[in-house]
Design goal:
302 residues, 2 domains, 9-stranded mixed sheet, 9 helices, 41% helix
């Protein structure tokens, strides 16, 4: 005999409401969009109501693919105020990516492949191979672990939308390059809390003292006192920064950085001028096809 899990309709609504709420907020966060709380709640409620209707035998046709797509599009539309079609499609697609990455498929197995029997006042839902507890626990774990995966998937698909021109200035010199807005870059200067943009050293070569390249090539972990002594001679003592970071294979790394006079960010035609940016220097290439040469902290484009 197959295991049957008894679910109240209000439980079905609540589970889907919370899950949809998280998906919408995650999509908005990834795209750095400010969403109205009322609109988010309405959109999540729409998804919850749809899940309840799908659970009713008389509405079984709503479980087909087309109604699911239509409802998801309506949820995206309700979540947003008026936006252009490109941004709407990106938001809708990001919701789909979030659903898969955050464990939507786990809950989907339960709701999309169900055998229902009428009851008073409940319905018996047969979840093939997936218990309700497993679905909820799996979704919760995915919510905790899936944020970076969503960002990676989204950037892979919409990479060109994350590329922005940068102009970095020191004195009367400047360097122009393309950066990728990297949702995984949360580096900050430990002294001031200012956001860090990671830039390939080669892209900044004309702005920097020759001793900087020699220091980076030495593969020696930087120490502040030593760097101030070296670069102080060239008037760079006050610009130098040490930025701690963690990466695969290097748990306690330290990146050499400096404070430029100004960074101009061209965010889709909107010029953003920043005087508090720290530039972290990376000796290796950041992109195999050289389509960008910097990883931009999302905080710098807000």
């Amino acid at each position: 005999m197959k295991n049957l899990v008894i679910l109240y309709l209000d439980v079905i609504f609540l589970i889907n409401f919370v899950f949809n709420l998280v998906l919408i907020i995650a999509a908005g966060g990834i795209l750095q969009m400010r969403l109205s709380l009322m609109r988010v709640v309405l959109a999540a409620s729409l998804g919850g109501i749809y899940a309840v209707l799908v659970s009713l035998p008389q509405f079984y046709l709503l479980a087909n693919l087309l109604p699911k797509i239509i409802v998801s599009m309506l949820m995206a539309a309700v979540s947003l105020k008026y936006v252009n079609i490109s941004l709407y499609v990106r938001f809708w697609a990001t919701m789909f990516l979030a659903a898969f990455a955050l464990g939507g498929a786990i809950l989907g197995l339960g709701y999309f492949n169900v055998t229902l029997q009428a009851g008073e006042p409940i319905f018996l839902m047969e979840l093939p191979g997936v218990s309700l507890t497993l679905a909820v626990v799996g979704a919760a774990l995915a919510l905790v672990l899936g944020k970076n995966l969503i960002s990676i998937l989204h950037q892979s698909i919409f990479k060109k939308d994350f590329l922005i021109p940068l102009t970095i200035s020191i004195g009367d010199k400047s360097a122009e390059l393309v950066g990728l807005v990297d949702t995984g870059n949360h580096l900050r200067d430990p002294l001031t809390g200012n956001p860090v943009i990671i830039v390939e050293y080669q892209a900044m070569d004309d702005l920097l003292p020759t001793s900087v390249g020699a220091f980076l090539s030495s593969q020696i972990d930087p120490e502040m006192g030593e760097m101030v002594d070296i670069f102080g001679i060239e008037g760079w003592g006050k610009r130098i920064r040490l930025i701690p970071f963690t990466s695969v294979g290097k748990e306690h790394g330290v990146m050499m950085g400096f404070k430029p006079d100004q960074v101009i960010i061209d965010n889709k035609g909107r010029k953003i001028i920043k005087n508090n940016i720290i530039i972290g220097l990376c000796e290796q290439a950041l992109c195999p096809d050289n389509s960008y040469h910097a990883l931009v902290n999302p905080k710098t484009v807000q």
